[in-house]
Amino acid sequence: MTYRRHREDVLVRRSVTVETIPSGMPVELEAGQLAQITQALGGSFTLLVEGQLMRLKGQDADAIGKEPPQAIAVPEDLHIDDLEPLVWQTLATCYDPEIPVNIVDLGLVYRLAFEPLPEADKLRVLVDMTLTAPGCGMGEAIADEVCDKVLALPRVGEITVNLVFDPPWDRSRMSEAAQLALGL
Questions:
Q1: Per-residue three-class SS string for the chain
Q2: Same domain assignment for residues 45 and 110
Q3: Average pLDDT of span 66-84
Q4: Which residues form the MIP18 family-like domain (predicted)?
Q5: Which of 64, 89, 105 is the last residue of a domain?
Q6: Domain check: are 95 and 20 in the same one?
Q7: 3 in a domain, yes or no?
Q8: How many domains are contained in the chain?
Q9: Which of 19, 128, 139, 180 is at a distance of 20 to 30 A from 105, taking alpha carbons?
Q10: 163 and 85 share a domain?
């Protein structure tokens, strides 16, 4: 299977802070700047601006004339025992901005665990995850996205994301769907 990217030219409508890829360094895009969307997955956008890839958070989608992403529909009366599948579903909306496959299918999530909090019906979520390369500058940005999305779920009171590199990640950790999507 071949993965084809669709690119779309956009005009930055208001100044906005983005993160350069792969360093993760924040930079400001000014209104009137031309950009090209190279990837729009998981609620964030990968932009090509003057030869540099940049990541725009979904909450700032209006800066390029797009709608912010829709949140995962969650019942208000979610039972605490039903939280784990919802967390996995949420993790599957997080993407490395350079790879069109979510972090779950890439095999980057090594552990998902829960601990009770003193507050009734609230849990601490513990995630051990890795990166495709230890020096990836987007690690903090991906971990922040995981935190933001999981903390928005009901019954989640805290989250800890540990970036781990043992065992090292390799392509054998990818799901079959991910391998097919990437043509491997």
A1: CCCCCCCEEEECCCCEEEEECCCCCEEEECCCCEEEEEEEECCEEEEEECCEEEEECHHHHHHHCCCCCCCCCCCCCCCHHHHHHHHHHHHCCCECCCCCCECCCCCCEEEEEEEECCCCCCEEEEEEECCCCCCCCCHHHHHHHHHHHHHCCCCEEEEEEEECCCCCCCHHHCCHHHHHHCCC
A2: no
A3: 78
A4: 87-161
A5: 64
A6: no
A7: no
A8: 2
A9: 19
A10: yes
